[in-house]
Amino acid sequence: MDIEDFNLDPSIAHLNHGSFGAVPHRVRERHEELRREAERNPDLFFATLPDRVAKARTEVAEFLGGDPDGTAFVSNVTEGIAVALHSIPLSPGDQILLCDHAYGAVDIAVRHAAARTGAEVVTITLPGRADGEWSGEDAAQAFLSAVTVRTKVAVFDHITSPTARLLPVEHMCREFAAAGVTTVVDGAHAPGMLDLDLTRVGADFYTGNLHKWLFTPHSAAVLAVSPAWRDRVVPLVPSFYLGDGFPRSLEIQGTRDHTPWLTAPYGIRLLTDLGARHVRTRNARLAARAQEILADLPMLTPWRADPELSMRVLRLPEGMATTYEESLTLSTEIYRRLNTRTAIRPWPGAGLLRLSAQLYNREKDYERLASGLSAILS
Ligand SMILES: Cc1ncc(COP(=O)(O)O)c(C=O)c1O
């Protein structure tokens, strides 16, 4: 597939697929058909919607190795995390574990839940060196060794956002379960990018976006809940379907646009037709090559990444882009001068450049960035 197979502006080098994804025409056309169908006969469309959502959910859950009865559609991971934190009872003095690589909105949600309940947030600094050396085992150990008798919940990523690290979530969920700690996994980047098996991961709550790496239009994500928690899920929005319980009580909450969820199976079918393993290998190789191309610039330090990921990270020069404002200024300048969209994230010591690789990317996209970045950074 090429950039022409997407709606993307072909004059721009889009190196940040990880943030918002992109929808191929083949899937977008199905989405548009569904929207037209909803508008042509709204009464029929909404009457049959719950069953169609259930059917789409079954297909998505099975693709992700999950249980259709334990998986609900939500609009995005921000919502999935909020529902999980809303459903877990917390009391003053309880502790919630979180780490310093957590996504900003997730960090805010955890602090909000703590402020609401009187719980305490314990933020773990994941071990790792400034040159990007780190290990998943050390990260897991840092989390697990922070458990106390007061620890009630652990919130952690499958793939971290600013640093693109793959955490050993299966091991972590098992160990936390043995310690009586409820697990909430932020799998925003995992569906589509990884060969996910939700049942094997074994989280109490696992939420992942379909609109990043599964070719699905925006506002499509899942929240998978373990059998022990399903009856205790509390929707943020009470609706007609509240009494139906999970998953329907989360999915059908008044009149809104459910077509991205109904489109998700077409994203899966496209990925399957292209060969999911082939796509993942191709993107992971291109991401590694992208990192090599940028690492030719002496001012950038490539961070170690997991070979199977379609994202890579390089550290910017010392002291650069350490705040949100500076990161925004830098990415805006890169766009203005190089017509290239990048993810620059603030990080202590030096900001991070995260590169994504998707089917529409070619080596020349990263070469465009490499050719002009030195001048911008100096
Ligand atoms: C790790 C991680 N968690 C959560 C989110 C939030 O996803 P959404 O904006 O779809 O809610 C993102 C988005 O980039 C992310 O990277």
Question: Your description of this structure?
Answer:
By secondary structure, this protein is of the alpha/beta class. The chain has 2 domains: 3-22 and 275-377, Aspartate Aminotransferase, domain 1 (Alpha-Beta Complex); 27-270, Aspartate Aminotransferase, domain 2, CATH 3.40.640. Helices cover 44% and strands 15% of the residues. It is built from 15 helices and 13 strands. The chain has helices spanning 17-20, 25-40, 42-63, 77-87, 104-117, 136-144, 169-178, 190-193, 198-201, 227-230, 248-251, 259-274, 276-295, 324-338, 363-377; strands at 13-14, 71-74, 95-99, 120-124, 151-157, 182-186, 205-209, 221-225, 301-302, 311-315, 340-341, 343-345, 352-356. The chain has a 7-stranded mixed sheet, with helices on both faces. Strands 9-10-13-12 form a 4-stranded antiparallel sheet. Strands 1-11 form a two-stranded parallel ribbon. Helix 5 links the parallel strand 3 and strand 4. The two termini are 36 Å apart. The model has no long low-confidence stretch (mean pLDDT 97). It binds pyridoxal-5'-phosphate. Pyridoxal-5'-phosphate is lined by residues 19, 76-78, 103, 105-106, 157, 161, 186, 188-189, 209.
